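REQUEST FORM: STRUCTURE PREDICTION
Request ID: SP-0412
Submitted by: Lab K.M.
Chain count: 1
Length (residues): 197
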Amino acid sequence: MGPAPDRSALSDGELVRRVREGEADAYAELVRRTRQRGYRLARRITRNHEDADDVLQESYVKAYRALDRFAADRSFGPWFLTIVARTALSSIRDAKRRAADSLDEPGADGAAPLGERVADPTQDAAALERRVKVERAYARLSEDHRVVLALRVDADLSYAAMADALSVPVGTVMSRLARAREALIDALNEMREAEPR
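STATUS: Completed
RESULT:
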């Protein structure tokens, strides 16, 4: 058995067509294209590495089963990330998530935990310090604010896709996003004011 054919140049629509025609290996390319962003989004919403992995695997199964409803002229990524968002939201709403271990959890794609990277002298200390502050401020936000920011910043979904994932009107998404950004800025300012002079 030889190596799998290179499908990296094929469009999402062509890959989906091939999967529908029985070429299950074509799905691996769709997974490769979406795995990193899908994990980041699931992790941001669940705030836990194990739950994010579970959400991602469940999302791939759901997407595979729903491929007959995928419009071939669309991009697979945003469609899949909507599935990830819904699955992650369902996971936390069903109280399946465990307490987050923000600095000790592995980073995206298996990177060292943020706490270890902060201690690494080869890293840009100022950039890591800013990131730690943003993560701590983000952790102070309400679930609604964290989710809407994750959909926009981590998943880079359009307002329409966000509305679809959250089952709310686009106007609601826009107002939630504005309030979430304000809340994040407020949290950062509160932390700055609490720092010793």
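NOTES: The chain has nine helices and no strands.
Reviewed by: T.R.
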